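Our consortium's second objective concerns turning raw sequence data into structural hypotheses that experimental partners can test. To show how far this objective has progressed, the report includes one record in full. It was chosen at random from the queue rather than selected for favorable results. The single chain below, 361 residues long, was entered without modification.
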Amino acid sequence: MSSTFGTLFRVTTFGESHCRAVGAVVDGCPARLELAEDDIQPQLDRRRPGQSRLTTDRRETDRVVILSGVENGRTLGSPIALYVANRDQRPGDYGHLSRIPRPSHADYSYQMKYGVRAASGGGRSSARETIGRVAAGAIAEKFLQQAYGVEIVAWVSAVGEIDADDVDRAGLTRGEVDKSAVRCPDPAAGARMMETILAVREARDSVGGVVSCVCRHVPVGWGEPVFDKLEAKMAQAMLSIPATKGFEIGSGFGGTRLYGSQHNDTFEKRARGLGARTNRSGGVLGGISSGEAVFFRVAFKPPATIGRPQQTVDFSGRPVTLEAKGRHDPCVVPRAVPIVEGMAALVLADLALRQQRMEIL
């Protein structure tokens, strides 16, 4: 089972949703970077369960502990081990699922692949695994901000059939995103999204949505031609997040409805080289960053585990009525925002180090 992401800035996550702890090991972080647990905790606080009525009511503080790789407040260049305890464990909530594969969940595929699975909470397929991603991403983000001034902001742009209006991607801040419990910077759309999520929770159902993300001040030249293109690595990172079903960059699928004369980003002279008048390419040309903001969207399906009765079969093929118990999000996108930001930071940090290595050579 592969649990490592990255080439030079590498992250390995560990842990299941109801084991003793989850976390990550970060290898390749440059030495002498100022780093403390307080640099990581804010993003984990944004990801943690129990934040509002819109999320699961599992109660976890998700306090991170740095076990290694940092001394006197600076990274040593050695592996950084990050540990977060699972405190509100209730594996007994999932006992009735030991013989029933949940519809659209990973229970069946994990069991068929490995012959065994962590039946409580989904194991490695659980969103609890993303704690390690968010913690590691916070480290990558600090490196990117200090070394290059990169800023990464994600927000909820759709829930179900409700779409937010376009936002000012150039100036949007996380503070503005977090003003709403649903993390949508469009107040009117955000209010409707909250009503929808609360309604599906009351109905013991679930709903999907879309998270948009902008990465500002990404220098020209990051990304490798052909197979390691920036958008290819970003797509891999985003589609590795639990519950994701789609990725698009720049104009995305909507751009296919335009003519080339409408879609092309023409150039103009700027103080430092050239710039694009528009950014339908999403900040990437030929798989390499163009100097414009990198902009993409990630689609999340409705959470698979719901409390409504479902007619299905157990592992033996016998018909059963499944009413899942346990604590589950009715919609994952509000808590997915820092996960998307974290994975974006991991991609960009890795590409930054690869570009540094190439320039040295």
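The partners drew two points from this record. Residues 333-360 form the longest helix (28 residues). The chain is about 30% helix and 20% strand. Both points have been shared with the crystallography group to help prioritize constructs.
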